[in-house]
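Retro notes (design track)

What went well: tokenization of the new backbones is finally stable.
What didn't: we kept losing track of which sequence belonged to which structure.
Fix going forward: every design gets posted as structure first, then sequence, in one message. First example under the new rule, 148 residues:
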């Protein structure tokens, strides 16, 4: 994937983290993703896994991706998430999301990617563009549901 697009993911991630105190990332299945000895479940291999980072956590996002110790249940796991495996960065508190979807193989065997940044107003008819490959776009519903 394009290094510029990965830098944009990183920028959006840290902006959301600074504004809201936490940021969510949707990570697609890849052999390069390390989730300690936990790995991906069958459902996560199909749909991806959502990881939550907060401003108090100790993690590093370098040129390759995010390195952190994440806790699943009560078990801390050494993790590495390549930036290429991150398909969305979002914040429920800010009603904002940035999504990336891989396009089919282009001539020459290179994959291209399309990124979109949506806020709540754009999601509900306030404008914005739609990527060509709609089936790969992840939409997150940030509306709060009340219990009856």
């Amino acid at each position: 994937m394009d290094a510029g697009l990965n830098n944009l993911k990183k920028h959006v991630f840290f902006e959301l983290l600074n504004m809201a105190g936490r940021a969510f990332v949707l990570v697609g299945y890849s052999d390069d993703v390390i989730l300690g000895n936990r790995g991906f479940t069958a459902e996560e291999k199909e749909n991806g896994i959502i990881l939550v980072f907060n401003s108090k956590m100790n993690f590093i996002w370098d040129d390759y991706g995010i390195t952190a110790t994440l806790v699943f249940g009560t078990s801390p796991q050494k993790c590495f998430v390549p930036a290429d495996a991150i398909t969305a960065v979002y914040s429920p508190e800010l009603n904002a999301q940035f999504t990336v979807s891989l396009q089919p193989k282009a001539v020459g065997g290179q994959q291209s990617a399309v990124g979109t940044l949506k806020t709540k107003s754009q999601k509900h008819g306030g404008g914005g563009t739609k990527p060509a490959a709609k089936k790969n776009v992840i939409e997150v519903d940030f509306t709060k549901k009340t219990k009856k």
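Added context from the reviewer: Confidence is low (pLDDT under 50) at residues 105-112, 120-138.
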